[in-house]
Design goal:
mainly alpha; Four Helix Bundle (Hemerythrin (Met), subunit A); 2 strands; 2 domains; single chain; 3% strand; two-stranded antiparallel sheet
């Protein structure tokens, strides 16, 4: 949603980051792969019950994700294979985060008069938010329902990956105030991801190319 609605601002920030880090002799794909290190270490931090360290490492992971795109733009090394690698690594790191939270163990809460375990909402967010939301765009392109790259990028979505990770990051901060708040945020992220999925399905079915 942020990238789609504010593309010029996002591009300007990306280029500023790219100009700064392009001075370091690492290729865009190198920066992409480098983000796997804090992603995996963040998973281990959550596995061993260290929320603060996990939060810091995943913030670093997210920043490196911004660096690779910025460097690619500034150095004019944007490639389809680079975009593919970036997307795959993004999903791996998101998996590290959500599965790490599952191992960390979050408080359960009451939903519709039933006590629901936090791992249920994490699993649903992993499936719907990380997998199906992205798949809805990729499948529309694969089936050639929408072939215009700009239209694909502008597909509606109240909670895309950037917003989803920002929301979870906010929830991890709220954990230090009250642990169950993070569970609420995970549920909210799942619910908004489900709306995003429905938005995209409706958009594709109504599209007239």
């Amino acid at each position: 949603m942020l990238k789609a609605n504010f593309p010029q601002i996002a591009d300007r920030i990306s280029r500023k980051i790219g100009r700064l880090f392009s001075r370091i002799p690492i290729s865009p794909n190198g920066w992409t792969l480098l983000s796997l290190i804090p992603g995996f270490l963040g998973f281990l931090a959550l596995f061993y019950k260290n929320m603060l360290l996990g939060l810091i490492l995943f913030v670093i992971c997210g920043f490196l994700d911004a660096v690779d795109g910025g460097v690619a733009r500034v150095t004019r090394k944007i490639t389809e294979k680079g975009g593919y690698l970036d997307g795959m690594v993004d999903r791996i790191n998101e998996g590290f985060l959500l599965i790490g939270l599952m191992f960390f163990g979050l408080p359960d809460f009451i939903f519709l008069d039933s006590k629901t375990p936090a791992y249920l909402w994490i699993s649903l967010l992993l499936f719907v938010g990380s997998v199906l939301v992205s798949y809805s765009r990729a499948y529309a392109a694969q089936k050639r329902v929408i072939t215009d790259e700009e239209i694909l990028k502008s597909m509606p979505g109240i909670l895309e990956r950037t917003e989803r990770l920002l929301l979870i990051g906010a929830g991890m901060i709220l954990y230090f105030i009250q642990p169950v708040y993070l569970t609420y945020v995970i549920f909210l992220a799942f619910f908004l991801s489900l709306i995003t999925l429905l938005q995209r399905i409706i958009f594709v079915m109504r599209f007239k190319g």
